[in-house]
Design a protein that fits this description.
The protein is α+β, with helices and mostly antiparallel strands. The chain has helices at residues 2-8, 22-25, 42-49, 105-114, 127-137, 146-151, 185-191, 197-213, 262-275, 279-285, and strands at 55-59, 71-75, 84-87, 99-101, 119-121, 141-145, 158-162, 176-181, 221-229, 236-245, 252-259. α8 packs parallel to α9 (262-275). The chain starts with a helix and ends with a helix.
């Protein structure tokens, strides 16, 4: 947060308002029980809407797929590492029947698909709490966002980074998302100074994928977008890989599509997984 204020520049005084969310308070239950992705943003967004704060900085992966009325996603700064990471062991090195701790249905489903022999435990809490549980509760490994460990100077704890070609990250993982009131045009323009266009296009494409799946989709899902130059044209190409899985990981649907309009690519990819790849029947049987 302080780093973002420095990027904005200027001499205007600024202060940080720390908001306690239901996701912070309720660490005794799974995130799906208390609202999934929205568990870490609702109270923060309310603070912006009611004027207690001028803008909010979120982990983009915590945001619901659609922006709340009255707010605008004003900036996505340069994205960090979007990948998931194992701490404590490697996927190939964990013994048969090994115990992996994660609070993410997406991570659990993909791990179960890759290693059906693994067993799982719930994991909640901040980074320090999760690492301490690994050390004292006998897990063979825990799964965390690589970007979080890098930002806290804890990259040395990573034992394996999971390649997104085979282990799809959460939508928006590794990116920050800055929201402010849609009516505050001057602030929208100011925050735009910290926007990274490639990161924004990737995050927008992933969020479009999630939005097209719909609020009723309770299946483990993820998407990873990459923006790259097209040698034949002056327009960059957005390549999106998306996945849907059964909660137990026995079925995993994955597809990659590309095009110049990342939002359109994300939406079409979601529609393919739902309508043609079997995702709708998977959803109905979940």
């Amino acid at each position: 947060m302080i780093g973002l204020l420095g990027l904005l520049g200027g001499d205007a005084p600024a202060s940080v308002l720390v908001v306690d969310t239901v996701g912070d308070r309720r660490q005794d239950v799974s995130l799906s029980t208390i609202g999934g992705q929205g568990a870490f943003v609702k109270e923060v967004q309310e603070a912006v809407l009611d004027g207690r704060a001028d803008f909010a900085v979120h982990s983009a992966k915590d945001l619901p797929a659609t922006t709340l009325d009255g707010l605008v996603l004003a900036a996505v700064p340069l994205r960090g590492d979007p990948r998931d990471a194992l701490v404590g062991g490697t996927l190939a090195g964990i013994a048969t029947g090994g115990l992996i701790a994660t609070g993410s249905p997406r991570r659990r489903a993909q791990l179960a698909f890759l290693r059906p022999d693994l067993t799982f435990a719930e994991l909640r809490g901040n980074i320090a709490t999760r690492l301490s549980k690994l050390d004292r509760e006998g897990f063979d490994a825990i799964v965390m966002a690589a970007a979080a460990l890098h930002r806290l100077g804890l990259a040395n704890r990573i034992t394996e980074v999971l390649d997104p070609s085979g282990f799809i990250p959460q939508v928006g993982q590794g990116a920050l998302a800055v929201e402010c009131r849609a009516s505050d045009g001057d602030l929208v323009a100011l925050l735009g100074r910290i926007e990274n266009s490639s990161s924004r296009r990737a995050v927008d494409a992933e969020r479009a994928f999630l939005a097209e799946l719909g609020g009723g989709c309770t299946l483990p899902a993820g998407a990873h977008a990459v923006v790259s130059p097209d040698e034949a044209t002056v327009t960059d190409i957005v390549t999106v890989t998306g996945m849907l899985a059964s909660p137990d990981g026995r079925v995993l649907l994955r597809e990659t599509r590309s095009g110049p309009d990342g939002v359109a690519v994300g939406r079409s990819l979601a529609r393919y997984l739902l309508d043609e790849a079997g995702g709708q029947s998977l959803l109905e049987s979940a």
